[in-house]
Every structure is written in C-alpha cells, then in structure tokens.
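Lab notebook: predicted structure, single chain.

Context: the supervisor wants predicted structures on file for every construct in the current expression panel, including those that have not yet been purified. This is the next one on the list. No modifications to the sequence; it matches the entry in the shared construct table.
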Amino acid sequence: MVRAISEKGTITKQKIVDAAFEITMAGGFDSATFSEIANKAGVSRSGINSHFKRKSDIAEELCMNDRFTDCAFKVHVMSGAHSY
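Prediction complete. Output recorded below exactly as produced.
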C-alpha cells in the first residue's frame, strides 16, 4: 500500500512539472501562477504545495529536467534574478 501512494505521488509531481514546463514554454515562467499550474496539471493548489513549497522550487525542478535546455532560463533562475 505504501508503494502505491509513493507511485501516485511521483505521478502527481510529474504532472505538476509537465504543466509548469508547458506553461513556461507558452508564456514564460515569471507570469505562471500556482493556480494556473495546478489547473493545467489537474491537481489542487494544496497538491502542488505537498511537492513544492515555493515557485522557485518548481523552477529548480524544471532546470533539472532534461527537456528544458534553455540556458538563459537556467541562468535566470539559478542566479536568483527572480523574486518569488
């Protein structure tokens, strides 16, 4: 039973990351909101908070994602040039 919960959590986290990726590619990360990401991922806002406490945590996860190779985005996020 614990394994099923863990797998569900992993799937939910991936849905959140996928949604954030799509939103970022469409309109940029700075304008993305937790509510918009939650809606696109099909999860609640509290569902996001159980995996990511801050928007910058999602940004860091995106930077670790192999699909996202935009160096300018990575430098922007990792340099602390954002304010979340």
